Amino acid sequence: MGQKVHPIGFRLxxxxxxxxxxxxxxxxxxxxxEDLHIRSYLKRNLAHAxxxxxxxxxxxxxxxxxxxxxxxxxxxxKKGTEVDRIKKEIQALTKRTDKEIFINIKEVRxxxxxxxxxxxxxxLQLERRVAFRRVMKKAISSALRFGAKGIKIACAGRLAGAxxxxxxxxxxxxxxxxxxxxxxxxxxxxxxxxxxxxGVKVWIYKGDSLELEVSDTVSTEERAPKRMKSxxxxxxxxxxxxxxxxxxxxxxxxxxxxxxxDDSGNDLTDQRNRPGKRMESQQxxxxxxxxxxAREKKVENRSDEKGHDTGAQKNNGPLSESDQNDENxxxxxx
Length: 334
Prior knowledge:
GO terms for molecular function: mRNA binding; rRNA binding; structural constituent of ribosome. Pfam families: KH_2, Ribosomal_S3_C. InterPro entries: KH_dom, KH_dom-like_a/b, KH_dom_type_2, KH_sf_prok-type, Ribosomal_S3_C_sf, Ribosomal_uS3, Ribosomal_uS3_bac-typ, Ribosomal_uS3_C. Keywords: Ribonucleoprotein, Ribosomal protein, RNA-binding, rRNA-binding. The protein has helices at 7-10, 28-45, 72-76, 81-94, 115-127, 132-145, 231-264, 268-273, 291-306, 310-316, 321-329, and strands spanning 20-21, 51-59, 62-69, 100-107, 150-157, 166-173, 182-193, 196-208. It has 334 residues and is of the alpha/beta class. Among the domains are: 7-108, GMP Synthetase, Chain A, domain 3, CATH 3.30.300; 112-212, 2-Layer Sandwich (Ribosomal protein S3 C-terminal domain). The strands form 2 sheets. A 4-stranded mixed sheet has the order 1-2-3-4. The radius of gyration is 44 Å and the shape is elongated. The two termini are 79 Å apart.
C-alpha cells in the first residue's frame, strides 16, 4: 500500500513554518494543551468567519494569537468590541488572568485558493445535500481561475447516501507532492451528514519557493546547470533518452545479424520470416548439383527405358532422326 506523508509536516523548516512558535522545558504539556483549547474554541465560535489557520507565539508571560480569516469584519465587530470579548474569554479559558494576550486579525485575500477554506466550503455544501461531484468540480474550476497551478480534492465516506463507503477524488493541473520546494497548501474538513461523516481533503499547488533556488550572489561560473522547469517535462525527457538507447541497441543488433549473414552467404532473416520454411544449417544443406550433370543423368534414365544407348551416341556424334523423334515423344512424367 502507498504510504502518504502530511504535506505540511513534510516541508516544515524548508518553505513552511510551525503554527505554534515557543519553547518550554517544564511547562511544555500545559502550554500544548492551552494551544489546543484556544484553537478549538476559536474554530467552534468563529466558524462563520471563515478561519483559515491560527498561529500562536509565546514569549515570557505574553502570548500573541494570529487569526487568518476571510471575513475580518465579523471578528473585529463594532469598534473592536468582539476582539476584546474574545481576549477575555481566552484568558478565562487558559486560567491565566495575569498573562497578556494579543490578538491580530489577518485577512485572507483569495479564499478560493486557501485549502482549508475550500475544504470547509465543500463540507458545508455536502451537509446541505448538494451533489458531491458538482461541489468538487466547482471548487476546482474556481481555484484554477484565481491562479492555482494545480488542485486535488478527495471525498471519502457514504457519498450520496450509499450503503458502502467509498473514496472519490478529482485532480486538475499539477500537484507535485514529492517536490520539497513546491508550495503545497493542505486542508481537511468533515461534513456531518445524516448518513455519517464525510471527510474532505484538499491539496492546492501554488508554485515553487524561489528562496530554495540558486541565490543571485553566486557567480555564473559557480552556478550549477539549470534544471528543467517542470518535473513532468524532465521525466518525459528521461523517457525519451531511454527510447533512443533502446533504438540504438536494436540497430546495433540488426547490423551484427546482417554482417553474419553476409559472411555465411545465407539470409537468415528472410528464412525466419518466410512462412512454411524451416531454417537449415550448413550441415543439413545438400551440395548443389550442376545443371549439366543433372541433364546427362536424366537423359541416361530415358535411354534405359527406350533401349537406346544415348551415352555412346553422344560420344560418337549427334542422334539420328528416329532417335530425336523418340526423345521428343517422351512424356514429361517420365
